[in-house]
Amino acid sequence: MGFARTCSVALVGVEGVVVEVQADLEPGVAAFTLVGLPDKSLSESRDRVRAAVVNSDAEWPQKKLTVGLSPASVPKSGSGFDLAVAAAVLGAAELIDPRAIADLVLIGELGLDGRVRPVRGVLPAVLAAAEAGYRQVVVPEQTAGEASLVPGVSVLGVRTLRQLIAVLTDGPVPDEEPPEEGRPDAMLAGLLVPGAGVGTGLAPDPANDGPDLADVAGQRAARLALEVAAAGGHHLLLSGPPGAGKTMLAERLPAVLPSLTRHESLEVTAVHSVAGLLPPGKALVSRPPYCAPHHSATMQSLVGGGNGLPRPGAVSLAHRGVLFLDEAPEFPGKALDALRQPLESGHVVVARAAGVVRLPARFLMVLAANPCPCGRHSVHGEDCDCPPSMVRRYQARLSGPLLDRVDLRVEVEPVGRAELLGHSGDSESTATVAARVHTARERAAARLAATPWRLNSEVPGHELRTRWQCAPGALAAAERDIERGLLTARGLDRVLRVAWTLADLAGRDRPGPGDVNLALELRTSISRGVPVGVGEWS
User: Fold this and answer.
1) Contact by Cβ (8 Å): 430, 255
2) What is the separation of C-alpha 465 from the centre of its chain, rounded to a whole number of angstroms?
């Protein structure tokens, strides 16, 4: 009787669970049994592993073979267990030393010819292995760079099972021929999943050519709101007629955001790796992601779902980046209301019959909406054909509880002829605005250094009312709005957060009356007579 064990990792959402792969050989009729809650793709690994071992010039044991995946209560899915199953079988057959694989974590799919194919989710899998105390992992060669992002772990990238056997038996490692230059590499097919993304992408580097804020004509108030949103992480609603520039502004927001920190990059890379959206050759995502789903998106595609264990939705694909909902009133009401909890908590917990998954979802939301179905309501010089009842119903599609979580609400007016055709040159570039946003975030980070928060939008209202107070008399206008019912308790907290961001942008130690009044104007859309240029308010 032969026995060997090694390890692999099962992914539950974007979190990994180390799985012990055990192989047992006993005398009897040759058979291959796989136990431990495998799904269909994992059950088929029996045929893949057998063919890969034979085609790697190794002898397949002609005995009764049982492979167990422990813990048996955790559902296992995907083809990433193939490499670990093959190693355990070879160890049980004493073709390799069982002690050499006992503390190894092996991740990868096997082709019938013995090639090791890359799989999705390598980064979160290696992170889980490192947290469990494992220090040696074997992954497909194409994902070795992704696995190497985890500190303290020795990574071995292999191209074929034959190479792995040679390394474990201290034999000469064969040189496998790389794919011919210029020809598509079929091995990368498992990394990118067509249709898995929800209008997602990575923001361009501000230093490279890409959409620039200088392309937006006029819109001083909307540009200021965009800058405040980027500096403090505040959610934004852009309301106005078609063609006013709402989508242009939203598309340029990711480039204004600072680059991700190391910890944030690992979080974003893990989500994109699991979702099959990590570009080949790009081991680490350093720029904030941008996700813009179509307004026909379902609730499951926004918050996460799918058959079996839930997969990341748009809110997770936009983690640490921007979620842009164009034509927001056209989204299903249940889908929009499902965003309330992740907007507050920064994560989403999806419960399904197959299990409960916690997915990261700390994003900056931008909503774009027309004032009515035809888009001409309240536009000077335009005739709106929508009856008042239709206008009210259309605007009511964005529920009050959802809008109460939006810090900035700006009316985007149509651009005039002089602004559109003029060459005044007063439109600031993305680089200029990004520099101010970076400075403001540094001021906030220095103030919040000894706290668990990094952005003004994350600070609880109680702390802003007690620990970091505004200047004396600064809240007079906000107190009047509360008494008149124009501002809720949550609304006051969000006004204080925006006021602190405005103070950071202006270089002040704490918000004054001008900061609070402008924050109220940006939230309620009621004019307070405050200038909208950066640093112009007092």
Assistant:
1) yes
2) 32
Cβ atoms of 312 and 275 within 8 Å: the answer is: yes
Written as six digits, the tokens of 357 are 């998954």
d(CA 305, CA 347): 14
Distance of alpha carbon 289 from its chain centroid, rounded? 7
Backbone angle region of 324, left / alpha / beta, with phi > 0 → left and psi within -120 to 50 → alpha: beta
d(CA 534, CA 411): 18
Helix (H, G, I), strand (E, B) or coil at 195: coil
Which has the closest alpha carbon to 411: 154, 169, 284, 236?
Answer: 236
From the CB of residue 486, how many other CB atoms can be counted at a distance below 10 Å? 14
Both structure tokens of 22: 């055990």
Burial environment of residue 493 by CB neighbours within 10 A (0 to 12, 13 to 18, 19 or more): middle
- Name the nearest CA neighbour of 440 among 454, 428, 426: 454
Kindly state the average pLDDT of the residues 70-80. Answer: 89
DSSP 475: T
SS3 355: strand
Whole-angstrom CA distances from 473 to 368, 463, 499, 514 are 34, 18, 14, 11
pLDDT tens-digit series, residues 414-440: 877 666 776 555 678 899 999 999 999
Determine contact, residues 229/254, Cβ cutoff 8 Å: no
Note whether 108 and 7 are within 8 A (CB): no
How far apart CA 235 and CA 322 sit, in angstroms, is 9
Contact 328, 398 (CB under 8 A): yes
Q: What angle do CA 44, 45, 51 make, to 5 degrees?
A: 110
- 22, 131 in Cβ contact below 8 A? no
- Of 84-93, 254-263, 468-477, 522-531, the one with minimum mean pLDDT is 522-531
Beta bridge partners of 4: 23
What pLDDT, on a 0 to 100 scale, did the predictor assign at position 315? 94
The pLDDT score that the predictor gives to residue 169 is: 92
Listed residue (115, 111, 137) closest to 124, CA to CA:
137
Of 280 and 20, the one with more pLDDT: 20
Instruction: For CA atoms 269, 223, 448, 494, give the dihedral sign.
Output: negative
- Is 121 within 8 Å of 107 (Cβ atoms)? no
